[in-house]
């Protein structure tokens, strides 16, 4: 499977996190600590009803597991220190009640090293025996999988921009797909030979397969992370495919003109149906769809197109 990762800027992740926390604790029970005036005490959001603190953190993706874990551990160390040192202010926020949990809320948690770091910081904090921290105070890390699907869908629907980062398929993934799809490859080879120089046809076919897999991965990711967007994108693609099958391609007769016209029309259709989806994602999905149409139906070119 092609790797797909949601790209977050700090503001979008914080807004997304707020929606998740309101679903967890109730919309009236989650409060924000602005960082713009003399710091945030190592707190982005807190809930006095459940005596819990949340700090939001999203690394810039794509990044490997080791680097992601290192940055998350550094964030825990840095911001937990603020909570420890800000005893007076934190106690006021919680009306004198001791805090039970401090949670780093991240898009993706995939390293046990972060859990071990949380355990160490939990023991360190308990050893200080601070009055504003509960005797069973605990440091934790939560990610999107810590929340039910309905909360994730609602939070995703509220975003003003959705941008997924797609890693190119590996050579192994390409080889496995090609081995299982000989008829589709033959179809693509036949069609692309009408618009590509003989020596470049196979490269064009390989590029088409890569685009197809990336586009499919994006659509699958939308199905699980943003079902509303997925439904709109699929409907837009289906509508374009139906029109293409009935009236034929636009922009002819030259194959390159047809492909560019159909690509741009498809991007516009996807963005029109799902305006919060990034243009880059819409283009990747459109390119993948175009590749699918070439390998299957209904997109073809006249053999004498120029």
Describe the structure.
With 306 residues, this protein is α/β, with parallel strands linked by helices. Helix content is 56%, strand content 11%. It has 2 domains: 4-150, Trna Endonuclease, Chain: A, domain 1 (3-Layer(aba) Sandwich), CATH 3.40.1350; 164-295, no CATH class. It has 11 helices and 7 strands. Strands 2-3-4-5-6 form a 5-stranded mixed β-sheet. A two-stranded antiparallel ribbon has the order 1-7. Helix 4 links the parallel strand 5 and strand 6. The mean pLDDT is 88.
Give a concise summary.
The protein is α/β, with parallel strands linked by helices and about 300 residues long.
- Cα-to-Cα separation, first versus last residue: 37 Å
Instruction: Give the overall pLDDT as a whole number.
Output: 88
**Strand portion:** 5-15%
CATH architecture of the largest domain: 3-Layer(aba) Sandwich
Q: What is the H/E order? A: EHEEEHHEHEHEHHHHHH
SSE map:
Layout: E1 4-6, H1 10-25, E2 31-32, E3 45-47, E4 52-56, H2 65-85, H3 87-93, E5 99-105, H4 112-128, E6 133-142, H5 149-157, E7 164-166, H6 171-179, H7 182-192, H8 201-225, H9 227-247, H10 255-273, H11 279-295
Parallel strand pairs: 4-5, 5-6
Antiparallel strand pairs: 1-7, 2-3, 3-4
Helix pairs in contact: 1-5, 2-4, 7-8, 8-9, 8-11, 9-10, 10-11
């Amino acid at each position: 499977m092609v790797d797909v990762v949601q790209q977050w800027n700090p503001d979008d992740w914080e807004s997304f996190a707020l929606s998740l926390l309101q679903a967890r604790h109730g919309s009236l029970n989650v409060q924000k600590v602005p960082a713009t005036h003399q710091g945030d005490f190592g707190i982005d959001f807190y809930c006095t009803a459940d005596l819990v603190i949340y700090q939001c953190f999203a690394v810039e993706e794509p990044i490997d597991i080791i680097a992601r874990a290192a940055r998350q551990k550094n964030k825990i160390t840095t911001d937990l220190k603020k909570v420890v040192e800000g005893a007076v202010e934190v106690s006021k926020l919680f009306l004198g009640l001791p805090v039970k949990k401090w949670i780093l809320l991240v898009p993706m948690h995939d390293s046990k090293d972060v859990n071990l770091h949380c355990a160490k910081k939990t023991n360190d904090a308990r050893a200080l025996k601070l009055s504003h921290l509960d005797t069973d105070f605990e440091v934790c890390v939560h990610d999107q999988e810590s929340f039910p699907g309905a909360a994730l869908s609602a939070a995703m629907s509220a975003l003003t921009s959705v941008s997924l980062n797609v890693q190119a398929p590996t050579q192994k993934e390409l080889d496995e797909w090609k081995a299982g799809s000989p008829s589709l490859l033959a179809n693509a080879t036949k069609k692309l030979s009408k618009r590509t120089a003989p020596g470049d046809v196979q490269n064009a076919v390989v590029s088409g397969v890569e685009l197809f897999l990336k586009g499919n991965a994006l659509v699958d990711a939308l199905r699980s992370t943003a079902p509303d967007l997925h439904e709109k994108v699929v409907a837009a693609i289906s509508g374009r495919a139906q029109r293409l099958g009935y009236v034929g391609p636009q922009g002819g007769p030259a194959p390159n003109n047809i492909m560019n016209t159909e690509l741009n029309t498809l991007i516009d259709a996807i963005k029109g149906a799902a305006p919060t989806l990034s243009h880059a994602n819409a283009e990747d999905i459109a390119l993948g769809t175009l590749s699918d149409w070439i390998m299957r139906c209904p997109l073809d070119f006249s053999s004498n197109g120029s």
